[in-house]
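[job 4471] stage=fold_predict status=RUNNING
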Amino acid sequence: MLRLIKPLLIISICTLVACDQSPKPSKTISLAQNGVFSANLSQNYALLGTVDGYGELWKIKGKPSLIHKWKHTDEESGIIATDISLNEEFAITAENNSIAWWRVEDGTLLSVWGLANINTINISPDGQFAIIGLEDKAIYLSLSSGKALYTLSHSDKVITTDISNTGKYAVTGSEDHTAKLWDLITGKLKYTWKHHNQLSTVAISHNDKYVFTNAALSQSQLWKVSNGQLHKKLGPSLITYSSAEFSSNHKYLLLGHTSRRIELWKVRSGKLKEFWRPKKMDIWRPTSATILSLKFNATNKKFSSISTNGLIQKWRAKK
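[job 4471] inference complete, writing structure tokens
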């Protein structure tokens, strides 16, 4: 009997750990033992919204170190969304009913606003403006003056947004099954893209040439900014992505799943190039780790990921 059990046990163990042959991370760093609700990566920093209710800004270049610990209200729900400006000088954090603007260098709270039912946020490249997704619209807010410059209308909750690296465009995704591209110079709507389900993730390429949209358990598509036409459909039709990041050379798109998978896609051909399986905290439990943020390094040959389990992992893409 023991001779029969051993092979079966080996098979069971192999199944539990998935016998995963995907590439392994070059480095794994645990920043939040209890996990995070939200996170955003830049080249040198990670901004976390922890389950303990604080915003934590970590320096991740070299030996990781906690630089600032922020809490801008007494709200119990904690920080649901975070973002760091491209120039890494400013950051924003959001709770359900408030948004705070911070200076990275010394951790100073620059301003805080009360807004009802916040779903998502993004900060502009220079750190002076923000897109805030609300119940039936997004607003484009001047952080220095506190004035809403534009209202970006939808008919239901705006749950995912992105601002282009040039600061020229914003894309909003809503539970009304539409993604919309907005000109931030004029505040005018440029395109509306209809989907079968509510939007899950949107992103704009660094050169303002493409927009990625994904509807929950539905289609993933690349659109041309020049004319609003479809460029490519990506992958299986029943996928929900939780994060997206274009490479700075515009050739690749990283996509993070809601359950422990990262994919690298070729933008021009719309073909899958490679995939990875980030680590779980405990391999014996059927838990998943949602990929919250992805960031290419300066050469686009490596990238980092952060998941809801509080792990940052560093990866190398094939040449």
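[job 4471] summary: The chain is about 5% helix and 50% strand.
[job 4471] exit 0
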